[in-house]
Every structure is written in C-alpha cells, then in structure tokens.
Amino acid sequence: MTDFPAVHPEPVPVLALGDILLVTLRGDLYDGAAEQLQYDITQRIANSPVPVGGVVIDLSGVEIVDSFLGRILAEIAASARLLATRTILAGMRPAVAITLVELGLTLPGLDTALDIDRALALLGRAPSVVRPATAEEGA
C-alpha cells in the first residue's frame, strides 16, 4: 500500500496596488484554498494601515465555478462590505456567468466588470497609462 503525501494547494496571492487588493484566480481553486483566500482577504482589509479602497478578484483564468466557490465569493464580498470595502469580480468568462445563473447564485454585494481596467475605473482608479491607438483605430 502506497501512502500519497497530502496535497496542500498553493495559497492565492493577494496583491496590493496602492489601496486596492488584487486577487487573480487561475484554474481550479480547491475548497481549502478558497476558504483560506476568504480569510486572507478579510485579514488584509482589517489589518491594513490605510483603508482598503476595494478588492478586485480577477476570474479571467477560471473556466469553471461551482456552488462552493460562488458562495465563497459572495461571502468575501459580504465580509468586505462589513469592513467598508467594495468587491468587484473582473474578467468573468461567459461560461462562468452562465453556470452561476444556472446555479441560482445571485452573488449579492458583488459588482462585476469585464476586465481589471474597468474594475479599477468602477473603484475610481482609472488606469494611468493611455493606450496608444492601433493602426485599425487610427485609420
């Protein structure tokens, strides 16, 4: 009989961009990692030396969301709201949106944006870099 070592999923990094917390989810997020992420975000908001202006959770690397992850995302938003911080989901794929609707998850307290730039704009932090016009736009 072979014993396999316990698998401990990598924690999801929570990056600070000024007063904004940015979380980028990639691939499958195991239940334990999702619960740890909820704890980490809440602690970062509560213990930040400056008020956190918002939390952006980038889902562009996620292809499947189950009811557990949907519930964790809603709980992150509810906790952040109680700590006077807004949460925005960015980069949701159409298949993920359809799945969330089919699961009946309304995700109260969560705002959505098509990408991180638009999420930052919703938080009043417009991207500082002006994109150069492409040949197609200038023609």
Automatic annotation (TrEMBL):
SUPFAM superfamilies, alphabetized: SpoIIaa-like (SSF52091)
Ranges for domain STAS: 10-123
InterPro entries: Bact_StressResp_Reg (IPR051932), STAS_dom (IPR002645), STAS_dom_sf (IPR036513)
Pfam family, one: STAS
Coiled coil (UniProt feature): none
Protein name: STAS domain-containing protein
Taxonomic placement: Bacteria, Bacillati, Actinomycetota, Actinomycetes, Kitasatosporales
